[in-house]
Amino acid sequence: MRKQNVLTILGIALSFVIAIGGWAVTSMLIDLKSDALLSAGGLTPVYAPAATSSGHTKLDDNPNIMGEDISGERSIFSAIEISRILSNWESRANEQPHEPMEGQITMEQAIAIGQKGLSYFYDQGIIPAQLLEYSKTDAYLCQRQPSGGAGKMLSPDYSYWGLSFSGENGSVRFSINAMTGQIWKADLGINSSETVLTEAVKKIKAEQMLDVFTAYLGLTGSGSYSTDGLTASESFADGMLYAVARSISLNSISEGEINTNRYSMAVYLSAHSPTIG
Question: Which of 39, 40, 56 lies closest to 48, judged by CA?
Answer without folding.
Answer: 56
